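Batch manifest line 101
LIGAND: FE2/S2 (inorganic) cluster
JOB: complex structure
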Amino acid sequence: MPFVRVGSVSDLPPESVREVAIGENLYAICHAGGKITALSGVCLHRGGPLGQGQVRDGYVICPWHAWGFHCETGENDYDSSKKVTTYPVKVEGGDILLQLP
Ligand code: FES
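JOB STATUS: finished
ARTIFACT:
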């Protein structure tokens, strides 16, 4: 599966998240605990934009009703059986590369 450049590490400060749209799909690119990870950008609750949320204690917090999803595993903070999809990410030369499904 191809890796696609989705931004620069320099544009994603520590403990932040940003939204990336590729085609019709939204992704949340997280920088949490020194790691860059990627999740589906669509909240499992009511479809809120996770990539427009905040990072807190390793979780991305949905801006609509504050559900949290772990930046590495995608697990919900209250119910780990609820998980958003995660995607492989690598960093090369300061670029963030997301592996598309
Ligand atoms: S839509 Fe994300 S918490 Fe409700």
